[in-house]
Design brief:
Elements: H1 19-22, H2 30-33, E1 37-41, H3 45-63, E2 67-71, H4 74-84, E3 92-96, H5 97-105, E4 109-110, E5 133-145, H6 146-152, E6 172-175, H7 181-193, H8 197-208, E7 211-215, H9 220-226, E8 232-236, H10 240-245, E9 250-253, E10 259-269, H11 275-284, H12 288-295, E11 300-301, E12 317-318, H13 322-340
Parallel strand pairs: 1-2, 1-3, 6-7, 6-8, 10-12
Antiparallel strand pairs: 3-10, 4-10, 5-8, 5-9, 5-10, 5-11
Helix pairs in contact: 3-11, 5-13, 7-8, 7-13
Length: 343
């Protein structure tokens, strides 16, 4: 068992942005609203914008309107949807598995049983009644700026325990579970990795000694590591491929014990006035054409035989129960705030 450490003073994180501060970013007139299919998504904005363009290109003739999206961090997305319910300002939602389970429990989703394109995809990726479909798994990765590693003469970390070395103090960035679904997955994965939850929290307290800051977005730690502002970043895997293709000196550090994995769930908003168009979008995401496109962001997609552009082989996964994560999120977040929100 790791020895327990006294909580240390940490900088105050910015609280979750009030819904009113960002509500104005996605207002639609009554005229434009009727001409657009709208998606709320917790995918990285770079990925979601490309997905919207792709859906518009492939489906606008079929659904008779373009697809527009608002990409938000998980915490912001949940706050917005719960504030707007039951008149949610989107037709389709793309969310993490535990967040989608919560929306389903709250009766906010419209079932679409047996979407044709999903019929030959494994049952693991489909909610039995058709409330949501898993387009493909998302996870988190540890990345390093290889130029900075070379300057310091440091080796690439191989284990979670390598990250406890004092030499990484101030060189590691993590996202905050207050706003980031990726951070929620990281915390749930660490707690699942240890036999005793107390040991998991003790590990996170040790790790916190080396964390410079907890970022609002799940992708920011990797972006800042890519720019050379920090040596290490642990964050969502969806931005890595794009940054490497742009020439940033990133290298992915495999973690020996594995990483947690979640789902990128797509669902239809209950009561949408564009139900048939929303069904066509959900169905299309199960096609081989979309699945190959989606794999290009690095995701491990639902349809078999389609390789990821990030993972050359399937990584080792830590088993995380999405239902447990959904049921315990508020409890875990409360504990996390008490330990680490004092920065």
């Amino acid at each position: 068992m790791l020895t327990n450490l006294l909580p240390r003073a940490v900088k105050q994180l910015a609280a979750l942005v009030a819904v009113g501060l960002f509500a104005g970013t996605f207002l639609f007139s009554s005229i434009s609203a009727a001409q657009e299919l709208r998606i709320y998504s917790n995918l990285h904005k770079t990925a979601q914008d490309k997905i919207s363009e792709f859906l518009t290109k492939e489906l606008s003739g079929e659904i008779g309107m373009p697809v527009k999206s608002l990409a938000l961090s998980t915490g912001e997305l949940q706050a917005r949807i719960l504030a707007e319910a039951p008149r949610i300002g989107a037709d389709v939602i793309i969310q993490s598995d535990w967040g989608t389970i919560k929306f389903a429990q709250d009766g906010l989703l419209e079932a679409y049983p047996s979407a044709p394109a999903w019929n030959d995809i494994a049952a693991f990726y489909k909610e039995p009644s058709g409330l949501y479909y898993n387009m493909g798994t998302f996870s988190y990765v540890l990345v390093a700026n290889k130029d900075l590693l070379k300057e310091k003469g440091y080796s690439l970390p191989q284990s979670y325990f390598d990250l406890l070395d004092p030499k990484w103090k101030g060189e590691l960035l993590l996202p905050s579970p207050v706003t980031s679904g990726t951070a929620t997955l990281i915390n749930a994965s660490v707690l699942s990795l240890f036999r005793d939850e107390e040991d998991g929290w003790s590990y996170l307290e040790h790790l916190d000694k080396n964390v410079d800051q907890y970022t609002k977005s799940g992708g920011t730690p990797i972006t800042l590591a890519a720019r050379g502002e920090f040596m290490l970043g642990m964050a969502s895997d969806e931005v890595v491929v794009n940054l490497i293709e742009e020439g940033y000196p990133l290298v992915v550090a495999p973690l020996r014990e594995g990483v947690g994995v979640g789902g990128n769930m797509i669902s239809i908003v209950k009561g949408t006035k564009r139900l048939e168009a929303a069904k066509k979008v959900v169905n299309f995401t199960g096609t081989e054409k979309f699945q190959r496109f989606f794999a290009g962001f690095g995701y491990l997609v639902a349809r078999e035989g389609i390789p990821s552009t990030l993972y050359k082989k399937k990584p080792k996964f830590i088993k995380v129960d999405a239902g447990w994560a959904a049921d315990n999120r508020e409890r875990i977040l409360k504990i996390w705030k008490g330990k680490f929100l004092k920065r």
